[in-house]
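Problem: given the chain below (534 residues), write out its structure.
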Amino acid sequence: MKKAFVPLIIALAMAIGILLGSLITRNAFRYAMVVPSKANRAVGNKVSELFEMMNQSYVDSINLDSIAENVVPIIMSQLDPHSSYIPAEELQTVNDELSASFVGIGIQFNYFNDTVNVVKVVKDGPCEAAGLLPDDQILKADTVKLTGKEVTTQKIMHTLKGERGTKVRLTVKRPYVDSLLHFTIKRAEIPTYSVDAAYMIDSEIGYISVSKFAENTYSEFLNALAKLKKEHVRKIIIDLRGNTGGFLEAAVNMLNELIKNNSMLVYMEGYRQPRREWLANGAGSATDLKLIVLIDEFSASASEIFAGAVQDNDRGLIVGRRSFGKGLVQTQMPFRDGSAVRMTVARYYTPSGRCIQKPYTRGNAEDYEADIYNRYIHGEFFHADSIHQNDTTTYYTVSGRQVYGGGGIMPDVFVPRDTSDFTPFFRSAIDKSLPYKFAITYTMAHRKEFTNLKTWKEMERYLQSHGIMNEFQTYCAHNGLKIDKVQYAKSRLLLEHAVIGYIIRNILDENAFFSYTNTYDETVLKAVELFRKK
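Solution.
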């Protein structure tokens, strides 16, 4: 079950602030991580002494493990904002985010109208073999009911996942079939993907979107490069917007394909960590391609390593907005009970010597997490001259260009966020997820009509010619959103892009979705313009 995708337009609206905290929390475990430590750690100080005193002398019987479960997160919170405690019951889920696969049944789903709706069936997965189809609704897994307002996404995932080789019996409602269907699914390894799209924009320019740096990102990237090379790519856009990081090694391996032998890529150093450097190893299968890297305020950690190496080596242009500013490196250290901490052990530096970690106060994560919102309020998303970097030290790229550290990677070409068509009506529609929900409803009702439509352009023409936005307005009205004609007219194109984009994604694939959305994406369009201007 690949994680359900986050609506594109919601991502555009996030800077307003209400969703920022949840975004940062949701991605809190995607770090530029080094290889996890297998050593157990014991604390030989007042904390361990106090626990021993309590164990030997306290008046009542107490559960020290339960107390420790509450104490350890408090201790970790007194360090930097990226050191954290992971309870045992959450560790596998957290680790799955960056793994090459996990054990499951092989579907993408959403929880809509209190029901599990199958969006896509993973190719060659257990559900495809059993005969499940998109738009099927899963009502039960064995005897566990999966409908109703009390059901959560976490419960659904926990129920459908399990040990490899175990079986689960699904009770399914299929559109246009009167009786319920039953499928017995044998759980298996399900691959996860971090290269979301790879396609040719025109006869020369290729586009690759990388959503995270996971175990299999490098191999996926190589496959994407090979595909584009068969189509004679000469210039490439690598999109790291919204990529909050992952494994350092994945970023380094990708850089090796793009940067010439022996060039510095990144180095790390900490109080107890001697300096360690990574140099390009000469693999270099794509050093001849012209390169542009896209970043934004949610590009963090390994994404910043990647962008910083490209920029400091003058390998290509960085286009977009200032990145998040995370220059801390974590390693995972286990406890005997199956829980773990992810502890910051070093800072990483770009080839010119920049540490791009933004300032923080130990023990004060609240102000740190508010930084992105404050950037928005101060106008940084809209005007390059509103950007305030905390380190005024000048660093130099290999050709002598000036660059700065102390709070993220500054792009070579700034592209402002455009919110000019954001009206209260638009925000209400997005807050209620109406474009997303409408697309699901419309897809379920009209899937058969799309059988002969093979490209996103064909689907766009079909939907526009069939009055898709008239139906969307009716859907909004039926779902409690009164149509304001003036505001709707101003935001209509944004809403149409969202609605059509989601339907294209539901029916076709990620390449089709990105091919469509990138036709009006200002940052992608700027990159294409720069390439064409040479």
